[in-house]
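Subject: Sanity check before I submit

Could someone independently write out the structure tokens for this chain? I want to compare against mine line by line before I put it in a report. The sequence has 74 residues.
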Amino acid sequence: MGLFSRKSNDTPSNPAMAELGRARRHGDRKTMRRIGREYDATATGETDAASFQAGQESYDALPPIKTPRRNRRR
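---
Independent answer below. Compare away.
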């Protein structure tokens, strides 16, 4: 990487845990509980926790999608 490069090497140490962190859904309790159980069963240390957190932060960094208005008359 160059001195003024915007690219950063933020790859998590455990990509599977990062993907599990990215799989979070808003308002879907069933999926969140399943992900929590999966995380508890497979997480083995601080690197897994950091990878999971990095996945969650990358998911949260995405801007929300604006839906079109639905108040048209039919």
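---
OP: Matches mine. For the report I'm noting this point. The mean pLDDT is 78.
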